[in-house]
Write a structure and sequence with these properties.
The complex is a heterotrimer of chains A (293), B (388) and C (599).
Chain A lengths: L22 H13 L3 E5 L3 H5 L5 E2 L5 E3 L5 H14 L6 E7 H6 L2 H10 L4 E6 L36 H6 L5 E6 L3 H13 L5 E6 L3 H4 L6 H10 L6 E4 L3 E4 L7 H5 L10 H24 L1
Parallel strand pairs in A: 1-3, 1-4, 4-5, 5-7, 6-7
Antiparallel strand pairs in A: 6-8, 8-9
Helix pairs in contact in A: 1-7, 3-5
Chain B lengths: L1 E5 H11 L4 E4 L6 H13 L5 E4 L3 H13 L4 E5 L1 H16 L5 E6 L13 H4 L7 E4 L3 H18 L3 E6 L7 E5 L3 H7 L16 E2 L5 H33 L6 E4 L6 E5 L2 H15 L4 E6 L1 E3 L3 H7 L5 E6 L9 H10 L6 E6 L9 H12 L9 E2 L10
Parallel strand pairs in B: 2-3, 2-4, 4-5, 5-7, 6-7, 11-12, 11-14, 14-15, 15-16
Antiparallel strand pairs in B: 1-8, 6-13, 10-12
Chain C lengths: L2 H5 L9 E2 L1 E2 L11 E5 L5 H5 L6 H9 L3 H9 L5 H7 L3 H5 L11 H14 L15 E5 L3 H12 L3 E5 L8 H4 L8 H13 L3 E3 L6 H6 L6 E4 L5 E2 L11 E2 H9 L2 H6 L7 E5 L3 H12 L3 E5 L11 H9 L3 E3 L2 E9 L2 E14 L5 E15 L1 E4 L3 E2 L14 E2 L3 E4 L8 E4 L9 H21 L4 H7 L10 H4 L35 H4 L12 H9 L12 H5 L5 E3 L5 H4 L7 E3 L9 H5 L5 E5 L3
Parallel strand pairs in C: 4-5, 4-7, 5-6, 7-20, 9-16, 10-11, 10-16, 11-12
Antiparallel strand pairs in C: 3-23, 8-17, 13-14, 14-15, 18-19, 19-20, 21-22
Classes of the chains: A alpha/beta (293), B alpha/beta (388), C alpha/beta (599).
């Protein structure tokens, strides 16, 4: 167990309106600790558009450019261009969007910015549904989950997009998953992403959501950890779209993860077996890629 | 220096002279010549800026918003569907109080696909908080672009410089291109009133609760209300330096006119010939060209039309269910017992020709009709096709 | 118009541009749960007869805070060098880490600490308390007597120890072989106790008359005479047996002395018994070149000797014959012939041990050059133990005769009154007697039990002097942290390590100490394995995860400057805490709790 004194500056202010136990808030706090004061955020419609604060307040000590839902990557591109032309190469720009703003409405702009080789970090803090609007499914919502738009017996029966694979396929210099349950890994990845200045760096950041997933807020970190331990959300990184490395091993059955959340409560043993099969396949694929590297 | 330039090139020349830093655009006919020209300037270094090849107009406006928020002068251009796709971000740019300037080449919206001139695209954006200027030739397009940066940066509102598809965008005309030194003197380097700055960290464009939202909207309206006066002051300076001025509205032979044409864009140039032709026949007719549409220069129109008995408005657009947009706006501006009678005609949409004869016919129809019909009259429509 | 005049236009510019902080929003009002820091009790401490603050000791060692760690032991135990070597370390059996992979090497780390503190000449922090104007006589300088004098000195009493032998230490000096406890180690521990002002009168045997007259000089007497008399085998030919304890005593005085009561090298010996003394005798004989065979009436697993000592004896070539009860000794060919009865297990008895009964009439004969009896010991004289009298108050590790006929309180400790005969339990005796006496003098006999209960460690019988004195440990909850309280995801399996041991063939070549100390890096690494059950070790996991920035560190500056301070130096700001409870749920040490908010 690490035994280092938690030190250094905080860039999150207390008094924000995040839900108790909000994983996305922890994600921001840890990310900014890693990135430091020379950081600017571009935040689209999302939970973080709210947590960021109401006029005239801000919950962050770094500048935020709030922008429209689909535009994180485009606005970040423009901001980067402006800073470059003003001679500011020191500042790191971070697009900070939820899964809806990334997997769905913001995807076109993100893909384009990746293809253009834009110099910024794009963090998708993933809470696996449109949480800010009251828990509607997104293309990040996993197979088996109930949301307000996949209710009752019409729970989601399609798989979550593999966004990291999609981003890696753009051959961006760095794509990685990270989790609030592994703060050192998370901070290392953000620092690494900040140190790379050619091309877009993508971080897929698992951010558990007590409100939307149905678990007690004190379990935010535990649920996030179980996601990694059960391989439902493996921690890995991809350099240049080709070189894979797995950062955290785990082999618990996925049932342990699913059973922590009411959004999966209805799943039968057969359903869970199907999820397990999918998780196993994906893991095998990942391991194979890591071995190739 | 006098050069023969395409309308698109004239705009691009103005953007270069304005020392714009970030240009972000997505291709759409007939705007492409503008951005191609700018891409070339960025590539050859004659413009020290960055051209971002975004994947959509929505992203074009978003990235320009990002760039302006980063404190640099920016530009984009679009048309028709591109502008429609931008719509959300047009609101954002104004609400964010960013002095963005864009060139908008009026083109019809589909379906069916149509590349030709039509003002419905820009007029659909009238409530977004953008200023709009309608140009009628290449020189004016260049000059207005320079004036627009100067004005936008005072108002902290974005400005659309509007020009007709092909008739202006693709037409070569002699254009007096001012020297860089003169432009620099007129348009100093951009000094943003706020920007993204790690040393002075703002959260920009965030949630505005009920207790402030309306005041923020009122602030936009106040800036709009201040715009005509400020524009005129800037234009005075422009005139001193460059010897050209256009006004909010441009009167032509209006002094003693009983009937005055009101229209915008290249159609106004045609109308001018029509005025001369009709005058030659002894008709007391004039032209009051609409240049500034947002904010709507009501006072200038009231003054310009103070002596007119009838006004003929030619709209190359239609607000479906209401009629020609210029006509409606003007009617509202002139409303009152002293107002001249206003005859509204919708014509020339989707690139259909508006000729001198068009104006002559409209003049005759208006002159011979004591009272204007309700709503807009569609001119030049083949009714055969509509019978089914 | 010039630029300047144009630019002076005053245009309204009111839009969402924010630069004030959310810090003025007291979002803590949302909360209906309230987390807080509450340090708890570690099971190792509960099971340590000395009640040592083991999780804190390990925490300090892991940070290299040797002096602080050593002094943390000394707060509860005056003999870390001894215990680090000979303690049967029940702490490690209770260690929660044992349920994860292997228990923490608490014993080896204690040994390391004492060696390191000695090597670095670290000054002990324990000091004599402000004088209370009372004198206590202590009879016997074994671990119980030494501990009593140490703790009584800390409490401000003047102590005099009367020791019959030439040198102090009792069983530690004369009973435990040098390969387990070298005398140099004992000497430095005793020197430390003397430095507190304790007078030790050696070669001063006392008798019951001493007790009669003690009241003229002393305010109380603590009797810790130990069990110095070997028990009899109770079989014919018993006089042929050599006394195991006497042998150990001579062995401790050097090899030469040992040989005077041992058989020649390459000879054989029978050692009768199953306790630690039997094992020590057999292993000492092995070091003199003798081949010993332990004869025990029960099974190996029933032996009262410490399991690791038994194992080590076997490694060193000691033979063992189980389930054989001596029937008679006879002289044969210059040696001894032992007749034994074969025994068999006969179910678990009332004391929880396996009973044995004769296995029919089967007998065997075992021959050796000599036979050593080590079947247990008892007190030498009757006044050394408390009378079987209803007026004697029996405590867990001591007996108190407050209104003894001699006119002053008599307290009894050490093996004669302890259920478990161990050095650590003897030290516990001394501590219990010291606290009991202090309470007695200040509040009277009636207050003793409640005060002892107040300074109990967790739910066990161990006492903490720090708690008694109102130190930071007194703020801890007595709730004992169990394995399921520890979020083990924060730990990864690692290997337990003790100090290196001499290989058996080298070990038996001399009385050289078998086990060596861990080195500093090893000790830190081993200490790092500790879960630090129940105590805040400043890992700051709570602050790392708190989404509200509601946790404040109260100690400023570099951690090295304040890391020896005790207690959780964190505060939860109720202005912002929304009561999510992540801090408490994720505390790797179980040093927090979350409760419903009291309105």
């Amino acid at each position: 167990m690490k035994n280092e004194l938690y030190s250094g500056a905080e860039y999150l202010n207390p008094g924000h309106v995040g839900c108790p136990g909000c994983g996305a808030t922890i994600a921001m706090k840890l990310a900014l600790r890693a990135l430091g004061e020379h950081t600017m955020l571009v935040i689209p419609a999302s939970c973080w558009a709210i947590i960021g604060g109401n006029y005239p307040q801000s919950s962050l000590k770094v500048p935020i450019l709030h922008t429209a839902f689909a535009t994180t990557a485009a606005a970040a591109s423009g901001l980067r261009a402006a800073l470059d032309l003003r001679g500011d190469r020191e500042t790191t720009i971070v697009g900070w969007a939820g899964d809806g703003g990334t997997f769905d409405i913001g995807f076109q702009a993100l893909s384009a910015a990746a293809e253009r080789g834009e110099d910024f970090i794009y963090v998708c803090y993933d809470n696996e549904a449109y949480m800010n609007t009251g828990v509607q499914r997104s293309s990040s919502t996993p197979w088996g989950a109930r949301t307000m738009t996949t209710p009752g017996d019409k729970w989601k029966r399609t798989y979550k997009k593999n966004i990291v694979e999609i981003m890696a396929a753009h051959r961006i210099p760095y794509a990685a998953t990270a989790s609030i349950a592994y703060p050192e890994d998370l901070e290392r990845k953000l620092r690494k992403a900040a140190s790379i200045r050619s091309g877009l760096r993508f971080i897929h950041l698992y951010s558990s959501c007590p409100t939307g997933w149905g678990f007690a807020p004190e379990h935010s970190v535990r649920v996030a950890r179980l996601a990694v331990q059960t391989r439902a959300f493996p921690l890995y990184e991809v350099e240049d779209g080709t070189t894979y490395a797995i950062n955290q091993a785990g082999d618990k059955p996925v049932r342990e993860y699913l059973r922590t959340q009411s959004r999966f409560r209805h799943l039968s043993d057969e359903d869970i077996a199907q999820i397990q099969k999918y998780v196993d396949q994906e893991w095998k694929r990942l391991v194979r890629k890591a071995e190739e590297a | 220096m006098r050069e023969v330039l395409e309308g698109s090139q004239a705009v691009a020349e103005a953007v270069r002279l304005a020392r714009v830093k970030v240009i972000s655009a997505y291709p759409i006919t007939p705007q492409t010549h503008i951005v191609e020209e700018l891409a070339k300037y960025c590539a050859d270094g004659s413009l020290d800026g960055r051209f971002i090849c975004v994947e959509s107009e929505h992203s074009a406006m978003a990235s320009v918003i990002g760039a302006e928020s980063g404190g640099v002068r920016s530009f984009t251009a679009s048309s028709s569907h591109g502008l429609a796709l931008m719509h959300e971000m047009l609101h954002w740019a104004a609400g964010a109080r960013l002095p963005i300037v864009m060139a908008e080449v009026n083109r019809a919206l589909g379906p069916g696909w149509n590349l030709w001139v039509d003002q419905t695209d820009s007029l659909s954006q009238r409530d977004t908080g953008w200023l709009q200027f309608y140009c009628s030739d290449g020189q004016e397009a260049l000059d207005t672009t320079l004036l627009a940066y100067r004005l936008a940066e005072i108002l902290n509102l974005p400005i659309m410089v509007v020009m007709d598809a092909f008739f202006l965008s693709h037409t070569y005309e002699p254009v007096d291109v001012p020297s860089q030194a003169d432009v620099d003197a007129f348009l100093p380097p951009y000094e943003p009133k706020f920007l993204m700055d790690t040393k002075n960290p703002y959260a920009l464009d965030e949630v505005a609760p009920i207790n402030v939202y309306m005041e923020m909207r009122r602030s936009i309206q106040m800036a709009m209300e201040a715009a005509p006066g400020i524009y005129q002051a800037i234009e005075d300076e422009f005139y001193t330096r460059f010897g050209r001025r256009y006004g909010l509205v441009e009167p032509y032979r209006c002094e003693d006119a009983d009937i005055v044409f009101v229209t915008a864009g290249t159609a106004a140039a045609t109308a001018r010939v029509a005025v001369d032709t009709l005058r030659a026949k002894g008709e007391r007719v004039g032209l009051l060209r609409l240049r500034m549409f947002r904010p709507f220069p009501a006072e200038a129109f009231r003054l310009g039309l103070a002596h007119a008995k009838k006004v003929i408005v030619l709209d190359r657009n239609c607000s479906f269910g209401a009629g020609g947009v210029f006509a409606q706006e003007l009617k509202a501006a002139l409303y009152g017992p002293e107002a001249p009678k206003l005859y509204s005609y919708v014509a020339g949409m989707g690139g259909r020709d508006v000729t001198v004869d068009t104006f002559s016919e409209l003049f005759t129809m208006t002159r011979d009709q004591d009272e204007p019909p309700l709503g807009s009259v569609w001119y030049g429509v083949n009714e055969e096709m509509l019978r089914s | 118009m010039s630029n300047d005049s144009v630019n002076t236009f005053n245009v309204s510019l009111f839009f969402p541009k924010s630069s004030t902080s959310t810090v003025t929003n007291k979002t803590g009002t949302w909360s209906f749960m309230r987390p807080s820091y509450l340090e708890k009790t570690a099971p190792c401490s509960v099971h340590c007869p000395c009640g040592q603050d083991i999780p804190r000791i390990e925490m300090l060692v892991s940070r290299g805070q040797i002096a602080a760690a050593w002094n943390t032991i000394l707060a509860e135990n005056p003999l870390p060098g001894t215990c680090g070597r000979v303690c049967f370390h029940p702490c490690e059996k209770a260690c929660n880490r044992g349920q994860f992979d292997e228990a923490v090497s608490i014993n080896a780390i204690e040994r390391y600490l004492d060696d390191a503190a000695w090597a670095a000449s670290i000054a002990p922090a324990a000091a004599r308390g402000s004088a209370k104007g009372r004198r206590i006589a202590i009879v016997g300088s074994g671990p119980a007597g030494l501990a009593a004098s140490y703790f009584l000195s800390m409490l401000g009493y003047e102590c005099e120890i009367f020791e019959a032998a030439e040198e102090p230490g009792g069983i530690l000096r004369y009973g435990i072989p040098a390969y387990r406890l070298p005398n140099e180690v004992l000497d430095r521990e005793i020197a430390r106790i003397r430095a507190l002002g304790v007078m030790i009168h050696c070669a001063r045997a006392v008798d019951s008359a001493f007790l009669e007259g003690a009241k003229h000089t002393y305010d109380a007497v603590f009797l810790s005479c130990g069990n110095g008399a070997s028990m009899k085998l109770g079989v014919p030919g018993e006089e042929l047996a050599l006394d195991g304890l006497a042998f150990l005593r001579s062995a401790k005085q050097g090899e030469g002395a040992a040989r005077t009561i041992s058989v020649k090298p390459h000879g054989s010996a029978i050692v009768v018994g199953g306790g630690n003394t039997a094992i020590d005798v057999a292993r000492s004989l092995r070091r003199l070149g003798v081949s010993p065979t332990i004869v025990y009436r029960r099974r190996r697993e029933d032996m009262p000797a410490f399991e690791h000592e038994v194992a080590r004896a076997l490694e060193e070539g000691v033979r063992m014959v189980e389930l054989r009860a001596p029937l008679a000794l006879a002289r044969l060919d210059g040696g001894i012939e032992l007749k034994v009865q074969k025994m068999r297990p006969a179910g678990v008895g009332a004391d929880g041990r396996m009973r044995v009964v004769p296995d029919g009439d089967a007998t065997e004969l075992i021959f050796a050059d000599a036979l050593y009896s080590a079947v247990g010991a008892t007190h030498a004289e009757s006044w050394m133990v408390p009378p079987d009298d209803g007026r004697v108050v029996r405590l867990s590790h001591a007996a108190a005769f407050w209104d003894a006929p001699v006119g002053i309180p008599l307290l009894y400790g050490g093996d004669p009154v302890n259920e478990n005969e161990s050095v650590a339990d003897a030290i516990a005796s001394g501590k219990q007697a010291a606290i009991a006496l202090d309470v007695f003098f200040q509040k009277g006999a009636g207050a003793v039990k409640a005060e002892l209960a107040r300074c109990a460690v967790g739910d066990g019988t161990s006492l903490s002097m720090e708690i008694y004195l109102g130190g930071p440990r007194a703020n801890r909850s007595g709730r004992v942290v169990s394995f399921k309280d520890i979020p083990t995801d924060y730990f990864s399996p690692s290997e337990k390590k003790r100090g290196a041991s001499l290989p058996p063939e080298r070990a038996i070549a001399s009385f050289e100490e078998i086990e060596s100390s861990l080195d500093a890096a090893e000790a830190a690494m081993q200490a790092e394995r500790c879960f630090n059950c129940g105590i805040c070790n400043d890992c700051d996991n709570c602050r790392t995860y708190c989404p509200e920035l509601a946790i404040t560190a109260l100690r400023a500056g570099r951690r090295d400057d304040w890391s020896t301070e005790a207690g959780p130096a964190r505060a939860i700001n109720s202005d912002y805490c929304k009561g999510c409870g992540i801090c408490a749920a994720e505390c790797p040490r179980c040093a927090m709790i979350i409760e419903e908010q009291q309105s």
